[in-house]
Amino acid sequence: MNPLLARLQPYPFERLRKLFADVTPHPAHTPISLGIGEPKHATPTFLKQALAAALDTGLAGYPATAGEPALREACAGWLQRRYGVTVNPATQVLPVNGSREALFSFAQTVLDPTRPGATLVFPNPFYQIYEGAALLGGAEPHYVASDPARNFAVDWDSVPDAVWARTQLLFVCSPGNPTGAVMPLAEWAKLFDLSDRHGFVIASDECYSEIYFRDEPPLGGLEAAVQLGRTDFKNLLMFTSLSKRSNAPGLRSGFVAGDAQLIKPFLLYRTYHGGAMSPAVQAASVAAWDDEAHVVDNRRQYREKFAQVMPVLAPVLDVALPDAAFYLWAGVPEVFANRVPGLSADEAFARELLAQYNVTVLPGSYLAREAGGTNPGRGRVRMALVAETAECLEAAGRIHAFVFHND
Length: 407
What we know:
With 407 residues, this protein is an alpha/beta fold.
């Protein structure tokens, strides 16, 4: 077996199951899960109809790894409408089976473990795929903590020059998981300058870009590049998907776009990797990328939901409305620190909340790693407000009562 598999950390939900193994939830409450970031709003009917209509002719042949021209053109058209960015559909766009598999496989394309000290840099806390991609690619992960005092902006200045010099790939996530923070143009400019100086590639994970709470939509990586005069997108790829935008996580559909000199070898890798998208999924994806009305309605639902939940939670938790995404990254009260021997405050909070009120949240320490003697997720929990408003509001009420009676 590949010895690098032994370096992988348990997935957060595996750790959560272990944490809850001996917990019996209070029978008076029906279960509500805010643990997994899986969209629960209805998948648009037109998308399902497009998928079904393509089944008659879409399964009879092998699909091209590069995808059909119609899909690449739909993706390029969406980039133009959403960001004002122009790309060549033939050379700068590549369909992928969701951003998760693409982020992982792209790292295997870029990383060169034969170079001493090969390093992959990413924020801490983080999406677990980043770390797994580094470890199985033979690189060392470097964790960069975010600063709660600066709206959870990632502290890129804390990375030593010696680490940047060894860096081959940088993962950024904006809007961020789990913090919801959005990178401003000045932060992009800093990262582009570092990439130019040290030669590393930037992979921008933007799968939450269409769920936001301000009037101005989040800035995208390609959009930032254009605003800074970098129209060739050198050493930059953005990754997005339909999972959150269109409430279609089971479709496994997304795309990457940017530097044609990165797309070309990534396509070669995917040809051998078997990363072609089903023609039926491609047809449904074209319909989804071409329609914006369902995205506007989806965003409205999240805005209304957060507007109702925030006043219930803010009096009892250290929590603020995020820039974007559908998570609340909440600090738990100090009373839960040292509450249970061997457990962090966020773990104790999650266990007792489940036992007393049958609500599941994810300990923040499970989404981060200890670096420099500190786990930046410790003392926080991630709540995914993905269910319908009434269920999320019920969960918020239970959390309020839980904290009030345990404080």
